[in-house]
Amino acid sequence: MKAVRLSALAIVYPGLTAIYFGQAAFLIKRPDQIGTLYYNAIPHPLFWPAFVSALLAAIVASQAIITGGLGHTEDTSPQQKTEVASD
Q: How far out from the chain centre does Cα 31 lie?
């Protein structure tokens, strides 16, 4: 668990902060583009790689949520024993 906290503090939070500051700076220069901020903030040559990266991240995140939910359900459900009737 220590590695997760360390990576969150060293990589995730600074990255999110940089993204939010970048979006804020973009909106300060172009306040009329608030509806399409994500798509217009990316330089044109990097649009499709960023789009594919975001799509893959969404797929991985959805699979993680499904796996975590199923794992949690299996851990908390009561075990049912089935008995075979013998003649």
A: 27
Enumerate the H helices of the chain as residue ranges.
2-7, 13-29, 37-41, 47-76
pTM to 2 decimal places: 0.52
Distance CA 29, CA 3 (A): 38
- For the chain, the first-to-last Cα distance in angstroms comes to 53
Which sequence spans correspond to the domains of the chain? 1-41, 43-76
Least confident of 16-30, 37-51, 70-84: 70-84
Question: Residues 24-45: what's their mean pLDDT?
Answer: 87
Residue type, 41: A
- The tally of CA atoms less than 13 A away on the side-chain side of residue 31 is 1
> At 76, which amino acid appears?
T
